[in-house]
Amino acid sequence: MLDIHTYKTIDLPKKYRIQIQEIQDQIINDKEDEYWENYENFYLFEQAAVTVGLVDDDVKAFCSVFNNNFYGPDVYRILNRLYFTKDIRESGSTKTYKGEHRTFPMIQQQIEFVNSVNAKFYFISRQRKNTRWFKYFFNKYNNTYNNNLIVSDKQYWVCSNKNNSYGCCQTIIYPEDKQIPFDSVHNV
């Protein structure tokens, strides 16, 4: 099982910063990941928090909590730039590592972080339009952590580049009791 830890970015241990940078460099150099270009403009110190998944104190997964001017104050994207190294990826739709849902504790720790900074809204976003698996996954997450995340029925603009509907129009996962602060695009 992955050992999961979430840190304010300024508190992220140097050895993990170095390992994340090495992973990021490999993603960019290999150009094998579908979203490799997203990592070209990923800067650790622009993140509010970073979550690492460790095996024997080596970073095998990471993601961040992110805020920017487009989102507005106190709005955070969680599970931002989620990445798992090749040696711990498992194929298929289970999205587990050695039978454990590896992202569940990451999501939970990041929700705890945004709640600690009094976020008025937080969300997870993905470029995919097919939401069937998302709904299954987040229903299982909600049952495990007694939470209320739901999957949007529409896609929303999550960045300001209106010329990039593929990258900027995304399905979002968010707390059911919150109002989405983004413009919708169309029905999914």
Pick out its properties.
single chain, 188 residues, alpha+beta, 2 domains, eight-stranded mixed β-sheet, globular
Report the strand count: 10
Shape: globular
Query: What value does the average pLDDT take?
Result: 90
* Strand composition percent: 25-35%
H and E string: EHEEEEEHEHEHEE
Helix content: 25-40%
Largest sheet: spatial strand order: 1-2-3-4-7-9-8-10
Cα-atom Rg, whole angstroms?
16 Å
Question: What report would you give on this structure?
Answer:
The protein has 2 domains: 1-94, no CATH class; 120-188, no CATH class. It is of the alpha+beta class. It starts with a strand and ends with a strand. It is globular. It has helices at residues 14-30, 103-116, 132-145, 165-168; strands spanning 3-8, 49-55, 58-66, 75-84, 96-97, 100-101, 121-126, 149-157, 169-175, 184-187.
What topology does this entry show?
Elements: E1 3-8, H1 14-30, E2 49-55, E3 58-66, E4 75-84, E5 96-97, E6 100-101, H2 103-116, E7 121-126, H3 132-145, E8 149-157, H4 165-168, E9 169-175, E10 184-187
Parallel strand pairs: 4-7
Antiparallel strand pairs: 1-2, 2-3, 3-4, 5-6, 7-9, 8-9, 8-10
What's the gist of this structure?
This protein has about 190 residues and is of the alpha+beta class. The chain contains 4 helices and 10 strands; from the N terminus they run βαβββββαβαβαββ. The chain has 2 domains: about 1-95, no CATH class; about 120-188, no CATH class.
